[in-house]
Amino acid sequence: MTEAQTLADQAVPAHVPAHLVKPYDFRSGLGDRPQEAIAGLLDGPAVFWSPVRHVLDKGGAWVVTRSREAREVLANPEVYSSEIQGAFLKAISDDFHLGPLASDPPAHARYRTLINPLFTPKKMFELAPKIEAWCDELIDGFADRGRCDLVPEFADLFPTGIFVDLMGFPRERLAEFLKWNQDFIHGETPDQRLAGIKAITDFFAEIYENPKLAPSNSVVHYLLTSEPDGRPLSRGEFMGVVFLLFSAGLDTVVSSLGFTFRLLAENQELQAHLRANPAELPRHVEEMMRLFSPVTVQRTAVVDTELGGVTIKAGDRLAVSLACASRDPEAFPDPDQLDASRNPNPHLAFGFGIHRCAGAQLARRDIAIALERWFQRIPPFRLAPDSRITAAGGSVLCLDGVVLEWDRMQVPQ
Ligand code: HEM
Question: How far away, in angstroms, is 323 Cα from ligand 1 center?
Fold first, then answer.
């Protein structure tokens, strides 16, 4: 469907003032530096109406660009709901439910009570050696070659392996998970994406029907046997929560690795500084999360309200661009500069409010470990001259074509 057809399908609601209508598509035309392109919206209003389809089952949405308004939306779930169970997800099964991500209070707390214990500092500490070992295994595949196509050879595989280990699935299933993930995230059509989701959820449904398939110390076993709020997860809840844990930590981490490694490949001074000062990695990772915030989140207004001086009606959809809000100069002086000394650094890469990313600590650790292991194992790397970097837009911004090269180590004769 062309953009013109998409627009023709989307009548602008009567309460939207004409001067606030601006077609904006997060899926295309953002070049290979999408966060910079999106930050261009900061020259315009804090909230505007884009008739371009932003969600799968409905068109048109208010686009929220500023940190203050983004926080206002995310902090008020009683006004801006996350119950996004659209026709698309219902196609999986009637009871499929994405747990916390698709819930408002009080139901939301039931799911967070269930999944928060998976991401405690102790759990992250225990997981770190496995993440390091998996990272080293991947690096072994290309270290001697002096070259690596970052996304297919490292970034895509890294979080998927961590998920498979975390959930207690056999490593032999990794290739299947990768294929399903590619279809789901990068599928060209809604049907392809749906097929990816269905393959994944069928696998989880089989485990629900045959709990013996879940190893006793695994997260899947924990999810099957827990009774948050005094009752176990239904089949649809189980499938949805596992699917969420699978999907929420994949493309987001792939995205962060792509942008972070490109930045370091382009900035040798910064790379040398971090190699020499690994203790500074966490603060830099945090600031890179701000600069390269990849996610746009969706909400639906459930009452009439006002946001940034604009009238929002119950039923209106909102697309909150965390990439844009995290470069808002009102919240971040000199917002396009990497400044690891920002303290505090109240960026919105992991969201805000009750839905704030449950896996943020794991994500930070994934990225810091990836950098640490690369610095240990790979000499200073740069962009290969034949790198053809492209960015995919959508609800998670991602890079592809980041080819890195380095001088191969001389082995003494
Ligand atoms: C750099 C990587 C990541 C980024 C940028 C990111 C970003 C986000 C954002 C913005 C939200 C809020 C969505 C909303 O408000 O609607 C969120 C929620 C969530 N994330 Fe992450 N995430 C990352 C990695 C992970 C990982 C590794 C996991 C776990 C394996 C994870 C699990 C979740 C879950 C379960 C939620 C739902 C929380 C809720 O609704 O209460 N995320 N994430």
Answer: 14
What would the DSSP string read from start to end of 351-379?
--GGGS-TTHHHHHHHHHHHHHHHHHHS-
Give the type of residue at 206: E
> What CATH fold (topology level) applies to the domain 84-298+318-406?
Cytochrome p450 (1.10.630)
Contacts of 35 (CB under 8 A, 6+ apart): 259, 291, 292, 293, 294, 323, 327, 397
Q: Which atom from ligand 1 is nearest to the alpha carbon of 82?
A: 16
Q: Are 287 and 343 in contact (CB under 8 A)?
A: no
Here the tokens at position 168 are: 């207690």
For residue 59, give both structure tokens: 């068109």
Q: Which amino acid is at 176?
A: E
Is residue 316 within 8 A of residue 301, CB to CB? The reply is yes
> Residue 112: phi, psi to the nearest 5?
-70, -35
Tokens representing 413 are: 């004769």
Backbone torsions φ then ψ of 116, nearest 5 degrees: -55, -40
Angle (CA) 344 349 350, round 5° = 95
Q: Which amino acid is at 283?
A: R
Q: How far is the CA of 5 from the centre of ligand 1 (A)?
A: 33
Spatial distance between the Cα atoms of 281 and 273, rounded to a whole number of angstroms: 10
CA distance 161 to 196: 18
Substitution site in 357, 362, 371, 397 for ligand 1 pocket (most atoms within 8 Å of beta carbon): 357
Tokens of 231: 């009752």
Nearest C-alpha to atom 32 of ligand 1 is from which residue?
359
pLDDT in tens, the chain (413 residues): 444 445 444 679 999 999 999 999 888 889 999 999 999 999 999 999 999 876 545 678 999 999 999 999 999 999 999 986 556 667 777 788 889 999 999 999 999 999 999 999 999 998 899 999 999 999 999 999 999 999 999 998 899 889 888 887 777 888 888 788 778 777 788 788 888 888 888 888 999 999 888 888 889 999 999 999 999 999 999 999 998 998 898 889 999 999 999 999 999 999 999 999 999 999 999 999 999 999 999 999 999 999 999 999 999 999 999 999 999 999 999 999 999 999 999 999 999 999 999 999 999 999 999 999 999 999 999 999 999 999 988 889 999 999 999 998 655 55
The separation between CA 309 and the C-alpha centre of its own chain, rounded to angstroms, equals 30
